[in-house]
Amino acid sequence: MKIAVVGMGPAGAYLSALLADNYDIEVFEMQNKETFSSICAWGTGYYKMEELLKDVGLNFDDYVIHRGKELYVDLKNRIFTVKLYGLSTFNKPKLLKDLVSKVKVNYGKCIRSHAVREAFELVIDATGIYRALLPPVEGEDFLIPTVQYLVKFKHPPFDDFYVKPFKSYSGYLWFFPLDNGYAHVGAGDARYGKYVYEVLAFIKRYNGEVVRKMGRPLRLTPPSLATPHYINNIIGVGESVGTVFPLLGEGILPSMMAAKLLKDNIDRPKRYSEVLKSRFKRFEDAFRFVKLKMEGRNLMHFAILALKLHRYFKANRDHTGVDPSILDTLKVLKPF
Questions:
Q1: What is the domain-level CATH number for residue 167?
Q2: In this model, does residue 93 exceed pLDDT 80?
Q3: Which domain range does residue 25 map to?
Q4: 170 three-class SS
Q5: Is residue 149 within 8 Å of residue 203, measured between CB atoms?
Q6: Helices 252-264 and 46-54 sit at what angle, rounded to 10 degrees?
Q7: pLDDT of res. 299
């Protein structure tokens, strides 16, 4: 079977690696090979990533930059720490390139028409928020704008991960450490629009030097609402079908996990769609929580939702990378 994978993010690259030995794979990536990079903060859960990469013959330790121990959480300038469980930053661009080393990659190719359908038996839409080949999301599609800077610090303000949630859980500011004084500093904010100011103020406060600016919106719509997942011979995977955990804005591992689900159901799109919604059902609770908080509603069922989300964190700490106590969860989810 000839398969086109459009998009070389975590979902597209990992799926290509999973299918490389049994299918004729061709990848289309809009960035140029020489300047190829990745916008996100390069943070993910060590243990789940280690497990997934073993399936394609790669060792995650070859890519890890910083392995965290504690997460600093800043609530109204009161900082407390949450225990981490393998949350790490890693060389994401290098990993993505290595994942597609066994297949043909067409760099600098922006595929936005259905003409590609005629040349391939199956087309994978791994284009993230753009859904370049799939139809638009049915109903409301919830996107949150973000900005991020690669920053060089002479004296980094934190020796580990740091986040500052915004009012009504409309977003948060992050500091993700890299190496040699570098860090990714960014923020997303769906409601108040002050996230760029917050990030620049943080960088100025700690005498950081901006090396590069990047950023794009994130899709927080969960898989159950980010439909359709397929049409004709086009199937979506990753953020194009909603695999970003709404509370954290993290989509690397969920997107790779979705790729594995697609690999196991490559000729059964309906079954894939059902399994996708089932596997990420808890994303619905997180999405509902975030929406209610942003709308300023009084959460009568806050404790119930918080308990469900806490159970999710504990059960999935291998890929969230965090291991909060129930009190930690309640404090982090409450702002303000």
A1: 3.30.9.10
A2: yes
A3: 2-66+89-140+219-282
A4: coil
A5: yes
A6: 30
A7: 61
pTM for the model stands at: 0.95
CATH number of the domain bearing residue 107: 3.50.50.60
Residue type, 132: A
Convert the pLDDT of each residue in 151-178 to its tens digit: 999 999 999 999 999 887 788 999 999 9
pLDDT band at 74 (very low <50, low <70, confident <90, very high): very high
- Count CA within 13 A, CB hemisphere, residue 159: 2
Residues 105 and 152 in one domain: no
Q: 10-19 vs 92-99: helix axis angle to the nearest 10?
A: 30
**Residue (of 137, 110, 315) closest to 242 by Cα position:** 137
Contact assessment for residue 210 and residue 147, using Cβ atoms and an 8 Å cutoff: no
The Cα 59–Cα 50 span in angstroms is 7
How does DSSP assign 71-131, residue by residue? EEEEETTEEEEEEBSSEEEE-HHHHHHHHTTTSEEEET----SGGGGGT-SEEEE--GGG-
* 323 domain residue, yes or no: no
Three-state SS across 188-242? EECCCCCHHHHHHHHHHHCCEEEEEEECCCEECCCCCCCCCCEECCEEECHHHHC
- Beta carbons of 41 and 89 less than 8 angstroms apart: yes
Residue 206: count of CB within 10 angstroms of its CB: 17
> Which among 179, 92, 190, 104 is positioned nearest to 141, based on CA atoms?
190
Tally of domains in the chain: 2
